[in-house]
């Protein structure tokens, strides 16, 4: 078993307090101490009890087993994995993860000048760029696309040229969303943010939860042809998102929210591109 970041800091704080000789650790940390240093303390229920000499010996053993790490300092914030590797063999204890400071971007024509990149590249190319670089480039419009395959085929979107030619970001899922979130939290208020998601409860929910007060890219017309592309199974799985939408003040998004929630619709982005559905950017 390896320690997580919380356990490392808990043990570090215990070692920093010279006068404290007992502590009730959580199960994972207590089991780890029993496994590796069980001869240096006495278990009293869920509490670990040390003598002063035993705690001194624990400090010595920890230093011997982890010679690069200062247990009297603990883990500091703002560390990347390379920096963590200089301290411990568990580089993933770093609080800055690889995707926290990067985003995946593209432009239809392969012209990345809006991202601060001078070189022209083939249209199908996307670049993984630092958030700081994009902040310095200060693009006037950012289009955030939910799904990777739609991001790759963005040139097929039926939108006006001012949006089609904008800098496009892949929103990502799980860890990849952190870089985009960091960027959107830091862009100037005048930056136009356009969010293109699935036309389903979760996609509409993103309009309310994404930083930057985004516009939503939505179908101009909600017709029967579009309704035929709805996936009822996906809609049924999104009860939490439906409940969220029902608690919001929908504003200008209300016609699309009503169409999705009241008519039980869930239309994926791929169908909006394949059908060449005209799209418009709508402010809530």
Automatic annotation (TrEMBL):
**The organism's place on the tree of life at top rank:** Bacteria
Q: Which residues form the signal peptide?
A: none
Where does the record place the DUF7281 domain? 101-280
InterPro entries hit by this protein: DUF7281, Spo11/TopoVI_A_sf
Give GO MF terms, alphabetically: DNA binding
List the record's Gene Ontology CC terms alphabetically.
chromosome
- What is this protein called in UniProt? DUF7281 domain-containing protein
This protein's species is Bowmanella dokdonensis
